[in-house]
Fold this protein.
Amino acid sequence: MMTQTSARFALGHVVRHRDAAFRGVVVDVDPSFAGQPGETGDISPDQPFYQVLALGEGGGFIAYAPEDALEPDPEIKGLSQVDERRFFTVDARGRHAPRTHAIH
């Protein structure tokens, strides 16, 4: 029997990492760790992992983080419309997808 996992965050959600002190926007979600077995150390690979376009002093970077390390960021209300169009395609139902991927 296959286990179904629900992601807590969706594309376009603004999050922050509890330990690494970065903030950013979710640009992709994997239902579980997409790397090699054993690469996560003590972190469970059996949870959603997120690609986050993180905001840093030197600009943006892509971070790959497990769900249990992320939380909503109440200090940032969301993307501006300019940034939303820059990074995402948005369908008629309001679903976001990275510009490099089709809407799932």
